[in-house]
Amino acid sequence: MQRILVGGVAALLLVVSGLWFWQTQSNQPNLIPAAPPPEAISDALPQAGANAPAFGPAPPEAPKASREEMRFNRYDRNRDDLISRIEMMGSRTKAFKALDRDGNNLLTFEEWAAATGERFAGADRNKDQLLTRKEFAHTRPKQAEKPGFRC
Question: Is residue 8 domain-resident?
């Protein structure tokens, strides 16, 4: 019986202390500022200060890859510096075999660059290490004529 009485007194003390704490907190001023009314909220962008510079420093430039490196990287899908036959696309297997000099089914950048250098040398008719517009036009592969449309 004594345990029940002690438990009841403890519960009553907890309730009284909770009520006392609640009353003391309600009498204190609110320290959290109220939200501004919706009319005061503006959708405008923030304005820079009077002394702010017009623009910041330019971002660092990435090193420029050569045109051949960009073409090579287009085929090198997994970026292991080797082009496999699967990466070269199924329709390009004949071109891949022509470029793969050592026949290991992997195309290195050196093999790629050598083939392109030979292509450049073949197009440079006057051997001045420069391609004119006329010489450059001969480097383009011949395209098959497209059939006309039938309605």
Answer: no
In a domain, 75, yes or no: yes
Q: What is the Cα–Cα distance from 49 to 115, expressed in whole angstroms? A: 58
Residue 27 in domain: no
Rounded Cα–Cα distance for residues 66 and 56 (Å) = 29
Burial of residue 72 (CB within 10 Å: 0-12, 13-18, 19+) is: buried
Residues forming beta bridges with residue 83, ordered by sequence position: 107
**CA 115-120-123 angle, 5° bins:** 125
As given in the structure block, the two tokens for residue 147 are 């059939």
Prediction pTM value? 0.33
CB 124 within 8 A of CB 134: no
Maximum CA pair distance of the chain? Answer: 117
Residue 99 lies in a domain: yes
Q: What is the pLDDT of residues 63-82, one digit of tens each?
A: 888 888 888 887 788 888 88
Count how many residues are written for the chain. Answer: 151
pLDDT per residue over 2-14, tens digit each? 889 899 999 988 8
The amino acid present at 145, given as its one-letter code, is E
